[in-house]
Recover the amino acids of this structure.
């Protein structure tokens, strides 16, 4: 699997290897929906945001399943629609985890926010969507009635996801936010994954990474369920601050 | 920052790709293969160096002070740490703080651990102490104990569910000791309700309570309440900590006083350890960095030399003191913190790294360092090392480095500082072009036993040999260069045909290295036009060489050597023979048009598009950046098509297919995936139009719908 992973990553990176022409980069000032992760100072555009997805907690692999709070306090942003995002690396949530997530939702709501609901951020491998769907059925069951459910999705769902499975997923979630980046960069060759984006059978937004490349693929124009962009905000670059390097 | 978002895409792509791979993947850390340690990078070194994460340097210095190696004994013997997928390129030469953290911070045992998930859970988990105190107080009646226990249970429940009814108004107790416990519950209700002023007041009223648990716990909780008050307005509207500017400093100072008061009253109290830790928090929140620096120095001195507590204190020292703009004087700490802080101020850009982001913004000057002499009085070797780093990376005065660090290469083993000193000396010898450089590295090898040390010295020696025409020594029998990655980098970039062939045949070496050598040999011969040589070496490919594999060598995964013998050479619609026959045809006539088209088909179907791993030399200051003994330049398939389109001898079928392929080079992204010179859109349109016009009946003309 590791070799295969490296192989594909590399194949995906092909188009990104030799770029000569300047390409448009994502500037938060032109958008009004954002992912706000821990430790990222919000740029000015966030002050007029319509929708914010704020990372509230993480559930990490290794050790017991546990919701780790990612914020020092409860957000108070009544001017925007707010989603509580929980990033998870595993699906074996137990009763205490559900209770903790519900409590976090309640606290965010009680703070006067216009809380839309819960967003699950999980890298569901496209061939394993059925397993993820089973988890999401449980999410629906555990969440208080009336809580909306958003999930993040991978770029290739529309191209490679089993249509029947995607349809079932569509019945469970209120929206999918498709991520077009990996690390801090737009996935090279992203346009090829958009050819069948209009087949995604649920409301979907497209997540872009700040300062990443983005030229809207033509297929988005005919995509009736496309509900807009969400920009994943990054820390401003600092000298020597790099999580990854491109050879 | 997360590095993710790949798995689904990977699985999907497996179906479509023949499994080729190359550099350019956007994940992971690509170290600069040189000893230059002046620039901050995603990879760290076993050598203490300005570019390292300050935490790695602190760790090295702390371990050094106890005569230990970076994570094990200096004599080595331990295993290298397991690399995560994004650390594949580290080999045994590089490391980072994350690896070290994984090594020492244990996975929690899920069987025994009940995780607290929020303040309300902490509230609940403290209940047994309260109940035990009730049991220990003989003056309480059983009924009062029951009432108070129940009250606490309800308070804990209400903490996480504010819809529950209020608890305390309805609780009544009559005896004085019971009232003290009830007062404690009321103060705690305020505390967990984040009413910190009321909480502090409530606890303060109880410090003279007759019950020893109530009196001591209340005195401790005053400080906790004041810390809560200090932070109460430090969170921004998005729920993030807003930095020290939002902290109530006077509350933090009151917390400091309360902690001192608690520790004076209860030096061995049940909360003494916690209180001592909270003192650091109070110093930080009150921005008292002078005291914090002193405290950290003593904490570092007494910290264990391994394990999670060591990781914790180093993280704290770095985050709260060394690497924060909150601290006006990061050079104000004691010896090891000072050395780490000094080194951070010597970061410079790396001339060997095309992705270098430039030097740090605060470079320390020699006068400041000279003024630190007295503070380093106890550690002259460390001081000389700090000065030598400044001489090497900032002043570029290599003779001074040699003066500051005498030759001490012949030792049975090296602690982190002793090793770092000698490597820096070796770097200075290299920078000066000293004829004894290689001899120095050879001597240093003898004692380079700790993890990462030997490959570091091998890198120095290998670069010397590469730069001095001694590449063959690297691959000679009994060569001291044993590190797989160092050898394979030289195979990929420096070795010529004869050396590659002998490396491929060297049965004493691991299969991966032999495969890397043969893959490089065959790829370069085929791409650079040595078709006869290719034909003569093709038989060296072992029968079980994989077709699915990598074309990069770094992570040690199987190499796709079998592509040359078993890879696809043709697709429906355009017939091509086996690669050996194509190569033989080209050996007989390099201008054979159909054979050249078939060579293009092999590159295309094998996934070689934009594969430049073996064609692009590293920058000169990196290993493999100077020597290149392989003659010729690669012939990209884009160039093949352009030549055949222009060649009047080409037959219709070949020319139509060349036109089709030339257009497809740009589809669908608009970027050239075939190599060779990029052509403008007008040219691609002209190819498309010509295919349609000149070969309307050709299946390729019918298949081509667009140009890009």
């Amino acid at each position: 699997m590791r070799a295969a992973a490296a192989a594909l990553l590399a194949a995906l990176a092909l188009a990104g290897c030799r770029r000569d022409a300047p390409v448009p980069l994502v500037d938060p000032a032109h958008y009004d929906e954002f992912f706000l992760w821990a430790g990222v100072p919000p740029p000015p555009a966030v002050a007029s945001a319509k929708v914010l997805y704020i990372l509230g907690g993480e559930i990490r692999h290794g050790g017991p399943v546990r919701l780790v709070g990612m914020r020092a306090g409860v957000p108070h942003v009544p001017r925007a629609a707010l989603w509580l995002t929980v990033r998870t690396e595993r699906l074996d949530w137990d009763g205490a985890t559900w209770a903790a997530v519900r409590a976090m939702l309640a606290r965010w709501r009680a703070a006067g926010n216009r809380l839309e609901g819960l967003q699950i951020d999980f890298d569901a491998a496209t061939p394993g969507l059925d397993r993820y769907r089973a988890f999401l059925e449980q999410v629906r069951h555990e969440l208080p009635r009336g809580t909306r459910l958003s999930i993040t999705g991978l770029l290739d769902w529309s191209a490679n996801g089993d249509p029947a499975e995607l349809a079932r997923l569509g019945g469970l979630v209120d929206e999918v936010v498709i991520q077009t980046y990996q690390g801090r960069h737009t996935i090279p060759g992203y346009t090829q994954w958009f050819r069948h984006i209009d087949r995604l059978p649920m409301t979907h937004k497209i997540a872009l990474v700040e300062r990443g490349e983005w030229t809207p693929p033509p297929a988005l124009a005919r995509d009736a369920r496309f509900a807009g962009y969400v920009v994943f905000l990054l820390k401003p670059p600092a000298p020597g601050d790099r999580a990854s390097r491109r050879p | 920052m997360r590095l993710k978002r790949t798995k689904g895409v990977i699985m999907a792509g497996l179906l479509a790709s023949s499994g080729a791979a190359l550099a350019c993947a956007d994940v992971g850390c690509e170290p600069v293969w040189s000893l230059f340690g002046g620039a901050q990078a995603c990879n760290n070194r076993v050598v203490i160096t300005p570019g390292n994460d300050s935490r790695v340097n602190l760790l090295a210095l702390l371990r050094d002070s106890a005569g230990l190696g970076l994570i094990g004994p200096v004599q080595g013997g331990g295993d290298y740490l397991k690399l995560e997928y994004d650390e594949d390129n580290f080999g045994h030469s590089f490391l980072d703080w994350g690896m070290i953290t994984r090594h020492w911070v244990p996975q929690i045992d899920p069987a025994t651990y009940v995780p607290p998930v929020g303040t309300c859970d902490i509230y609940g988990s403290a209940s047994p102490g309260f109940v035990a105190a009730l049991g220990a107080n003989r003056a309480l009646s059983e009924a009062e104990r029951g009432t108070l226990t129940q009250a606490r249970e309800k308070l804990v429940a209400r903490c996480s569910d504010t819809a529950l009814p209020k608890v305390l108004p309805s609780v009544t107790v009559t005896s004085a000791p019971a009232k003290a416990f009830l007062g404690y519950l009321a103060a705690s209700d305020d505390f967990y309700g984040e009413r910190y002023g009321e909480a502090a007041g409530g606890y303060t009223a109880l410090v003279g309570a007759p019950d020893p648990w109530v009196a001591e716990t209340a005195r401790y909780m005053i400080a906790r309440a004041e810390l809560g008050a200090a932070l109460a307005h430090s969170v921004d509207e998005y729920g993030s900590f807003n930095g020290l500017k939002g902290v109530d400093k006077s509350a933090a100072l009151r917390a400091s006083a309360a902690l001192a008061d608690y520790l004076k009253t209860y030096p061995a109290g049940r909360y003494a350890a916690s209180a001592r830790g909270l003192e650091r928090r109070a110093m930080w929140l009150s921005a008292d960095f002078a005291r914090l620096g002193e405290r950290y120095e003593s904490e570092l001195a007494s910290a264990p030399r391994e394990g999670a507590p060591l990781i914790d204190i180093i993280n704290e020292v770095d985050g709260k003191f060394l690497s924060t703009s909150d601290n006006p004087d990061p050079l104000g700490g004691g010896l090891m913190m000072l050395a780490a802080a000094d080194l951070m101020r010597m970061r410079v850009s790396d001339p060997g790294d095309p992705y270098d982001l430039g030097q740090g913004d605060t470079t320390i000057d020699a006068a400041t360092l000279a003024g630190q002499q007295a503070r380093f009085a106890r550690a002259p070797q460390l001081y000389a090392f700090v000065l030598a780093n400044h001489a090497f990376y900032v002043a570029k005065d290599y003779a001074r480095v040699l003066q500051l660090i005498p030759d001490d290469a012949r030792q049975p083993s090296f602690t982190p500082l002793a090793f770092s000193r000698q490597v820096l000396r070796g770097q200075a010898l290299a920078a000066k072009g000293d004829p004894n450089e290689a001899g120095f590295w050879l001597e240093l090898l003898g004692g380079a036993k700790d993890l990462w040390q030997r490959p570091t010295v091998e890198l120095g020696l290998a670069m010397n040999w590469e730069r001095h025409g001694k590449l063959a020594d690297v691959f000679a029998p009994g060569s001291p260069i044993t590190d797989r990655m160092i050898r394979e980098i030289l195979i990929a970039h420096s070795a010529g045909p004869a050396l590659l062939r002998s490396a491929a045949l060297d049965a004493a070496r691991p299969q991966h290295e032999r495969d890397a050598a043969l893959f490089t040999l065959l790829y370069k011969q085929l791409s650079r036009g040595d078709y006869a040589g290719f034909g003569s070496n093709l038989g060296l490919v072992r029968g079980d060489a994989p077709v699915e594999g990598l074309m990069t060598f770094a992570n040690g995964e199987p190499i796709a050597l079998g592509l040359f013998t078993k890879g696809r050479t043709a697709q429906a619609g355009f017939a091509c023979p086996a690669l050996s026959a194509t190569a033989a045809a080209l050996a007989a006539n390099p201008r054979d048009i159909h054979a050249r088209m078939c060579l293009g088909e092999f590159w295309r179907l094998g996934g070689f598009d934009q594969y430049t791993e073996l064609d692009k030399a590293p920058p000169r200051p990196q290993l493999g950046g100077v020597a290149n003994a392989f003659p010729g330049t690669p012939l990209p398939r884009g160039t093949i098509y352009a030549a055949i389109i222009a060649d009047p001898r080409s037959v219709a079928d070949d020319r139509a297919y060349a036109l089709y392929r030339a257009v497809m080079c740009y589809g669908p992204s608009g970027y050239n995936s075939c190599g060779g010179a990029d052509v403008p859109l007008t040219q691609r349109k002209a190819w498309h139009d010509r295919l349609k016009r000149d070969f309307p009946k050709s299946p390729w003309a019918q298949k081509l719908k667009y140009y890009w």
Q: What stands out?
A: Residues 195 and 219 of chain A are 6 Å apart (CA to CA). Chain A has one domain: 27-232. The radius of gyration of chain A is 18 Å. The mean pLDDT of chain A is 81.
